[in-house]
Design brief:
The chain is mostly helical. It contains six helices and no strands. Helix 2 packs antiparallel against helix 5, helix 3 packs antiparallel against helix 4 and helix 5 packs antiparallel against helix 6. The longest helix is centred in the C-terminal third of the chain and has 31 residues.
Length: about 190
């Protein structure tokens, strides 16, 4: 995953690439979120594959993120009409759906270890979605409708106007890594 994000960072920071340049903090955040949206659920599925409820929950979460990926890529690369408020709205709706899954899981008092893994995973996903919504709001305040068209900007770069959001992202990256280490310790 680190190699993929390094390649993405290198590619994105070339001249005249759609989406604009991206900072290291934002590249890390993007890779972190993608790992939790698209890779980690499959790993957890292997661990809980014998539990039907866990499997349904994880496939539901995967469906939410695959739908978003397709929808967002269409708006970014085809119609070039992506806007942070769309991402923020999707994050909030996804958070509500995933929170309802978390409430379902926490209804039982005697939870097997794999339910605790699902609860920890869902909790991190909700935090990622809410944090990403905050980032999108701050980004939108700085760039407005510059996220649309041929010269769209989709990322906070190392430009000075993004310095504050990059510092927050860098700090949060450390916090989220620690949270994920706890989850990985539950799995192992």
């Amino acid at each position: 995953m680190i190699g993929i994000m390094y390649a993405y960072y290198t590619h994105q920071n070339q001249k005249n690439v759609i989406g604009g340049k991206i900072s290291k903090a934002k590249t890390f955040w993007l890779g972190y979120a993608m790992f939790h949206y698209f890779i980690l659920p499959w790993w957890i599925l292997i661990y809980v594959s014998e539990d039907e409820i866990s499997t349904i929950i994880l496939y539901s979460i995967l469906g939410i993120f695959y739908f978003r990926m397709l929808f967002q890529m269409l708006l970014m690369f085809v119609t070039r009409n992506w806007s942070p408020p769309l991402g923020m709205a999707y994050n909030i709706i996804a958070s509500l759906i995933i929170t309802s899954l978390l409430i379902y899981f926490t209804g039982s008092k005697d939870l097997p270890i794999y339910y605790r893994i699902i609860i920890a995973y869902i909790s991190i996903i909700i935090l990622i979605l809410l944090t990403d919504t905050y980032y999108a709001k701050r980004f939108y305040e700085l760039v407005g409708h510059e996220t649309k068209g041929e010269k769209a900007i989709w990322f906070a770069s190392d430009d000075e106007k993004f310095a504050h959001i990059n510092r927050i992202t860098q700090r949060n990256n450390v916090i989220f890594i620690l949270l994920s280490l706890v989850l990985l310790l539950l799995i192992l």
